[in-house]
Specification:
With about 90 residues, the protein is mostly beta strands. It has one domain: Beta Barrel (Barwin-like endoglucanases), CATH 2.40.40. It is about 10% helix and about 30% strand. It contains one helix and five strands. The chain has a five-stranded mixed beta sheet with strand order 4-1-3-2-5. A hairpin with a 5-residue loop joins strand 2 and strand 3. The longest helix is centred in the C-terminal third of the chain and has 8 residues. The N and C termini lie far apart (about 25 Å).
């Protein structure tokens, strides 16, 4: 288990959570905390549903930082990096 994310909860690497950039996460009381996101890797068609739990200070608009669990599910355990993605709030 790591430290608490900006939404206040502590999660493990395998939890299906994500961090959004500061354009969404405007502090600890962000209305996006707890929102569900459906994300699809557009290069392989794999999809996951994740929960917003933290802020990614270096993420740009539309970027998502995945915890290890959903990352592995979307990328077949690929090394950290970027991949083509479509996503929307569920």
């Amino acid at each position: 288990m790591g430290a608490a994310g900006s939404c206040g909860a502590v999660h493990g690497d395998g939890d299906y959570i994500v961090a959004l950039g500061p354009n969404y996460m405007k502090g600890p009381n962000s209305p996006y905390c707890g929102r569900r996101i459906s994300a699809k890797n557009t290069s392989n068609g794999k999809t996951v549903t994740v929960t917003v739990a933290d802020t990614c200070p270096t993420c740009g608009p539309g970027d998502i930082d995945f915890a290890l669990g959903p990352w592995n599910a979307l990328t077949n355990n690929a090394s950290p990096g970027v991949f083509p993605l479509s996503w929307h709030f569920s």
